[in-house]
Amino acid sequence: MAENILEVKDLVKHYPLTQGVLFKKQVGAVKAVDGISFDLKKGETLGIVGESGCGKSTLAKVLMNLERATSGQVLFKGEDISTLGGAALKAVRRNIQMVFQDPYTSLNPRMTVGDIIGEPFEIHPEVAPKGDRRKAVQDLLDVVGLNPEYINRYPHQFSGGQRQRIGIARGLALKPEIIICDEPVSALDVSVQAQVINLLEQLQGEFGLSYMFIAHDLSIVRHISDRVGVMYLGKMVEIGSDEEIYENATHPYTQALLSAVPVPDPTARENRERIILTGDIPSPANPPSGCRFRTRCWKAEERCAEEIPLLAIPTTLEGPAAHESACHFAEVRESAAA
Amino acid sequence: MTTVIEKNNQNKDRLEVGTPLLEVKDLHVEFHTRDGIAKAVNGVNYSVSAGETLAVLGESGSGKSVTAQTIMGILDMPPGKVTQGEILFRGQDMLKMSNEERRKIRGRKIAMIFQDALSSLNPVLSVGYQLGEMFRVHEGASKAEAKAKAVELMDRVRIPAAKQRVNDYPHQFSGGMRQRIMIAMALSLQPDLIIADEPTTALDVTVQAQVMDLLAELQAEYNMGLILITHDLGVVADVADKIAVMYAGRIVETAPVHELYAKPAHPYTKGLLRSIPRLDQKGQDLYAIKGLPPNLLKVPAGCAFNPRCDVATDLCRTEVPLLHHVTDEDGTEITGRRSACHLWKETLHG
Q1: How far off is chain A from B108, nearest CA to CA, in Å?
Q2: I want to staple B27 with a disulfide (CB 3.0 to 4.6 A). Which of A27, A321, A323, B85 is the partner?
Q3: Cβ contact B237–A242 (<8 Å)
Q4: Residue A141 pLDDT
Q5: Residue B304 and residue B316: Cα distance in Å, rounded?
Q6: CB-based contact A192 B292, cutoff 8 Å
Q7: Residues of B in contact with A263 (CB under 8 A)
Q8: Cα gap B121→B169, rounded to integer Å
Q9: Pairs from B283-291 (Cβ < 8 Å, separation ≥ 24)
Q10: Which of B174, B231, B235 sits opposite A280 (nearest CB)?
C-alpha cells in the first residue's frame, strides 16, 4: 500500500458575513468547506466531483494555502502546512502546484511563454540555476508536447488546448509531488480534451505525480481517477474507489448525480431511469440542519433533519457497497447501477 | 372578457407534426476581418419540421451558432455578410424580407434561447417586466395584462412562488431558474420553432436534466420544431431526432440519432464518439483526434478535416468532398443519411 502524501483532517473554511461599516459585526458565515477529511496516496489520482457551489474549488485553494483554513489540518508528509507562513510555506508550496480551469485568463497575455513557464524558477532559484533556465523551459515545452522553439511566443498565438499545455508545463516546472487540477479540460473543445487527459496520465507515470482532479464531467473523472470523492454543500458525502462510487453508489445524491449525466448512447434513453432532483442547491450561508441534502432527497425522514450523518462505512453493507458514505439510509439502488 | 392576448392565442394555428417549418439552403456567411475573409458558414443545408428536434453538433468555430444567428436575423452585419443561400420559413425566403417583416417573425414564429442567461437578461429590469415586454410589444397588451401573463409563464416553467418573484431581478435567481426564465420568454408567444444555442452548457448536470426535460415537455405540448445547438454528445443522444455534425463551416454528416451513434459515416464523427471515455478503456490512453480545429482564415485545401484524419488520401487533400447520400451494403439509399467524406463507404462499413 502506498504511503499517504497528503492527509486532510476535518478541514473547515468559513467566509464571515459582516454587517456595518465602522464597527463590523459578524452576522454569519458562508460555510464553503465544512469539515472535510480525506487522504491522497502517492502516485494516486483522487477525483472530486460535485455541482458548482459545493466547495470543491475552495477546497483546492485551501490545500494550496491560497486561502487560510478556518480550522482543521492539512498534513503534507505528516507536517501540518495549513498554519505555516514565510519561508516554510514557500518551501512547501514547491511541492503542491495547480493547473487552472481557464487557459485564457490564467496566463498573463503580456508575458512570453518562456517567462510564464520560467517564473516559478525566479521564486525557487534552487530548482534551476539562472544559466540553465532557458534550457529547462524548453525541456518542459517538449515534455508537454509543444515545440521548444515557441519559447518567445505570446499566449494569444496558441489555441485553447495548447494554452492548457503551457499551464501544465508551468505546474510541472518545480518538479512538484502533487498537482491539483481544477477543471483542467472543461474550457477545451471536445476533440482536444482527450489529448490533454492523455498528457496528464502520461506525465503522472513519468514523474510519479499524485493528482487531485476536480471536475464536473463524471465520465472523464471515472477514466482518470483511482478514487472519487463526491461533495455536496461543503461536505464530502461519499468517497471510494471508482467502481464503488460509479457501480455501487450508496448516497442518494451520488445516485441522482450519476443518473442525471447524459449518456452518449441514444439506445439508452428509453430504458434509463433518471432521478430528477427538484430545486436548487441551498445557500451555504444557511445550510439545512442535519443532513444537508435532505431538502432535495426523496428518502429524507425526520431523523435526517436532526442528526448529521457522518462519513463512515455503513455497518449494514457488504462488498463493494461498503465504502464511506454520509447517509443514514445508505444502500445500493438496484436500477441505478444499470 | 377575453384579453387581447387570449384572442391572439385562439387564432394561433398549431401545426401538425411533420409540417416542414424551416429549410436552410446552401447558406454561406463570411466575416471580413483585418487578417482576411473568414468563411464561417460554407454551404450549409438543413431542415426542421414541426415537432422535430434537430441537433447541430460542432466545436467552437464550426459555424453552428453563426448559422443560428443568421436564421434569427441577429447576426452583426458588418462584419458578417450572407453571400449566398436561402432560409425558407414555411416556404418564404427570410433573407429577402424587409426588416419589418422579419421583426414580425422573430419572437412570434421563431424564438431563441441563449447559452448564458445572466448576460442575456437585462440586469436593471425585473424579470416580470422583461417577460411582459413580449406581450406589450408584439400583442399590444396593457401593463397589468402583461404582468399577469408573466406570472402565468413563470408558473408554466415551474418557478416556485411565481407571484411573489415576478418583480425580482435576474441576479436574485439561480442559474437554472434564469435559464427557465429564458425558456419562458422564448415560449411566450408560442412560436413554431425554437433555436436553443447551448441552453444547458452553463448549468450543473442535475439542473441540466431538469431544464432539458422541461424543454422536451413543452415542445411536445405545442408541437414546436427545435434546433438544439450543442457540443455535448450526451445531451444530443438524450433528446435529438436527427443530427447535423458541423466542422469548419460545413455539415460533414447528417443522420437520424440512433444510426449516427451506432454507425458514423464520417471520420470526424467517428473520432468524436471514440474519444468519449468508456468503461473498458480504464487505464489506457483515450483515443484522441490529433491536431487542432482549423483556423477559419486558412482552412486546409480539400476536405477541411484531412490534416487530422487517420484515413486521408491524396484525393482528400485536393478535392472538397460533397455531402453524398449514403447507401447500405446492398446499395440501397439510407433515408436521411448523408456524409461529406470521400471514404464514407469504408468509414461506414469498414
Answers
A1: 30
A2: B85
A3: no
A4: 92
A5: 9
A6: yes
A7: 234, 237-238
A8: 9
A9: B285/A198, B285/A201, B285/A202, B286/A194, B286/A197, B286/A198, B286/A223, B287/A194, B288/A191, B288/A192, B288/A194, B288/A195, B288/A198, B289/A191, B289/A192, B289/A194, B289/A195, B290/A195
A10: B174
- Cell numbers placing B276: 468519449
Residue B261 near residue B80 (C-beta atoms within 8 A): no
Tens-level pLDDT at each residue, chain A (338 residues)? 578 899 999 999 998 888 887 777 888 888 889 999 999 999 999 999 988 778 888 899 899 888 889 999 999 988 898 888 888 888 888 899 999 888 888 899 999 999 999 999 988 888 888 888 889 999 999 888 888 888 999 998 888 888 899 999 999 999 899 999 988 888 788 778 888 898 999 999 989 999 999 988 888 899 899 999 999 999 999 999 988 998 889 999 999 988 888 888 888 777 777 888 877 788 888 889 889 999 989 888 889 998 899 888 888 888 888 899 999 988 887 654 43
**Cβ–Cβ pairs < 8 A, chains A and B:** 120
ipTM entry: 0.76
- A193 inside 8 A of chain B by CB: yes
Nearest chain A residue to B62 by CA distance is: A189
DSSP reduced 3-state for B208:
helix
CA distances from B143 to B126, B128, B132, B238 (A): 13, 10, 8, 40
State how far residue B190 is from chain A, nearest Cα, in angstroms: 26
Whether a cis peptide bond, with omega within 30° of 0, leads into B78 is yes
Q: Which of B172, B201, B228, B292 should we substitute to test contact with A (largest number of A Cβ atoms within 10 Å)? A: B292
Query: Which residue of chain B has the CA closest to A247?
Result: B279
Q: Terminus-to-terminus CA distance in chain A, angstroms?
A: 31
B261: distance to nearest CA of chain A, Å? 7
Under 8 Å between Cβ of A305 and A290: yes
DSSP B299: P
| Nearest CB neighbour to B209, from listed A191, A260, A264 | A260
Amino acid making up residue B5: I
The answer to whether the CB of A89 falls within 8 A of the CB of A81 is yes
Mode of pairing for the β-strands spanning A79-80 and B193-197: unpaired
Minimal Cα–Cα distance from A7 to chain B, Å?
A: 25
> What grid cell was written down for B263?
454507425
Residue B292 and residue A267: Cβ atoms within 8 Å?
A: no
C-alpha cell at B30: 463570411
Residue B206 to residue A233: CA distance in whole angstroms: 14
The torsion of the CA quartet B270, B229, B299, B311, rounded to 10 degrees, works out to: 0
Q: Are B233 and A52 a contacting pair at CB < 8 A?
A: no
Q: Which residues of chain B are modeled with pLDDT < 50?
A: 1-2, 10-11
pLDDT in tens, B269-282: 999 888 888 766 67
Q: In chain B, which residue's Cα lies nearest the Cα of A264?
A: B234
pLDDT score of A336: 43
